[in-house]
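Before the break, one more example. Copy the sequence into your notebook; we will annotate it together after we see the structure.
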Amino acid sequence: MAGRTEFNKGQLEVRVLRSRPVSPEEVDFPCVEQVALLRRHLRQHKPEMVALLTSLPPHQLNAEEWLADNRAAWGIENGLHLRLDVSHLDDQCRVRLPKSMRVMGMLRRFSNSLFMHWRSRQKKPKHKTTTDFFTAMTPNIIAMPSVASMPTGQASKPLRELALHILGSI
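Here is what the structure looks like once it is written out:
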């Protein structure tokens, strides 16, 4: 058993995790080594109970580590995934072909990496959003001559210069 009292969203939260070893047959789920019950109580809300399963045995993942890992897992959702969902409308994407999905995902993550780097160089970086980043980058795109209006062979030079400009500022 492990428990923590910490601040979450500016309010005191109590989290308690009770775990015990089990066999896959006991819980009718393959490869399970442990089960846990996590109780979260944020002030002014009803307590919430969550059941957890893991394939790690107790000597590799004790209750204290599991509680810390459970909290840390939300960092991914609140960091990268939230930015992809909100800024890039990732959840609303209608691309369904596996190769296209992979390319779109790579481009979105690359855009997010550029944003994180850009934000780290700004005054008050915690106040900068991806919308601010897109707005700051828009003049670079608008100022570039249209590739479609150029004679053949000249399109690569402005693109190369834009890429060098963007990469040079990183």
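Confidence is low (pLDDT under 50) at residues 146-150. The beta strands are 2-8, 11-21, 34-42, 48-54. Try to locate both features in your own notes.
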